[in-house]
Each structure stands twice: as structure tokens, then as C-alpha cells.
From TrEMBL:
The keyword Oxidoreductase applies. This is Flavin reductase. SMART domains: Flavin_Reduct. Residues 1-147 form the Flavin reductase like domain. GO terms for molecular function: FMN binding; riboflavin reductase (NADPH) activity. It comes from Devosia limi DSM 17137. Belongs to the non-flavoprotein flavin reductase family. SUPFAM superfamilies: FMN-binding split barrel.
Length: 155
């Protein structure tokens, strides 16, 4: 899977003191009608009980300026739960926090959580979408963050 380049998102869950969230490359589109998506979440994560409790989550698609936020929500900076939201770029939006300058913010209702192996496959029904243009995505490939080479021509 190290060879599979993926867009990096932070999935935010919960509210107030119960906020937490995780960095994810497993966000995938499921259907357009109705608008829905999938996220695969490790059931050892602190986010799993919060997702089950609130049955809502928000996908924040990160830009190339968000490496530090990705590291924070991957648990690599020692911050847990609501501490991960100390960055001023977060605002409460609906039920879960939203990253103000994210490439896109997709608020979802939890339709279903399918428990398989170590993970839960979250099926999210999209409630609202906002997005920005002219910003590059953050990409993860071979164990490191990358920028998309937007100058590459398609030869
Ligand atoms: C680039 C990247 C992608 C990740 N993708 C996922 C993912 O799709 N699903 C998941 O459960 N964990 C994923 N992780 C790991 C979680 O972000 C990490 O285990 C989580 O934040 C730990 O949560 P906790 O400290 O709140 O328990 C990823 C980590 C990184 C660095």
C-alpha cells in the first residue's frame, strides 16, 4: 500500500471536550446519488467510540500547507483529543470541527459502520460540502508527504 498515493484528510469527530479526530488516507467516494463516501477507521483509535456516540463526522481534505496538522492528527506530536484543535484554523461547524482553510470540508451523517478485521468501514451520508479553489492537495506516498507536481504534462 506504500505505492498507493493518497490524498490526506483529517476526519474530525465529536464536540467540545469530546472532540478528537484522525489523519486518514482511506477516504474514498462511494456514490453520487445519494452523495456518500467511505472512511476506514482503526477500532483502536480514540475516534472510534466518539464516532459511535455522535454518529457524525467531518472530512477535512488537507492542502499542501497542512503537514503539521496531518502530523498532529496522526498522534505524532503527543497531543490527544481536543488538544489537537489548538490551531486557530479550526471552527465548530455543525457537530464536528471544520478546518477553515481546508481544500474541502465534507460533513457526514454516519449511515453505517461495518466492523471488519481491525477496522470499521464508515459509510458517510454527505450533509454539506464547502471547498476552496487554487490550492494544492497534500499527498502521502511511500511513507512521506508530497506535493502534487501540477506542472507535469501528461505525456
Ligand atoms: C498519512 C496517514 C494516513 C492515515 N490514514 C489512516 C486511515 O485511513 N485510517 C485510520 O484509522 N488511521 C489512519 N492513520 C493513522 C491515524 O491517523 C492515527 O492512528 C490516529 O490519529 C491515532 O489516533 P488516536 O491517537 O486518536 O487513537 C493514518 C496516519 C497517517 C500519517
Amino acid at each position: 500500500m506504500r505505492q498507493l498515493a493518497g490524498a490526506v484528510s483529517v476526519v474530525s469527530v465529536g464536540e467540545g471536550a469530546h472532540r478528537t479526530g484522525f489523519t486518514a488516507t482511506s477516504v474514498t467516494s462511494l456514490s453520487i446519488d445519494p452523495p456518500s463516501l467511505l472512511v476506514s477507521l482503526n477500532r483502536n483509535s480514540a475516534s472510534w467510540p466518539i464516532v459511535q456516540r455522535y454518529r457524525r463526522f467531518t472530512v477535512n481534505i488537507l492542502s499542501s500547507a497542512h503537514r503539521q496538522i496531518a502530523e498532529t492528527f496522526a498522534g505524532r506530536r503527543g497531543l490527544r483529543g481536543a488538544e489537537r484543535y489548538a490551531d486557530a484554523r479550526w471552527q465548530q461547524h455543525g457537530q464536528a470541527p471544520a478546518l477553515i482553510d481546508a481544500l474541502a470540508v465534507i460533513e457526514c451523517d454516519l449511515d453505517e459502520a461495518i466492523e471488519r478485521h481491525s477496522h470499521a468501514i464508515l459509510i458517510g451520508r454527505v450533509l454539506s460540502v464547502s471547498h476552496r479553489t487554487g490550492v494544492d492537495p497534500l499527498v502521502y506516498w511511500q511513507g512521506d508527504y508530497r506535493r502534487l507536481d501540477t506542472d507535469a504534462d501528461d505525456q
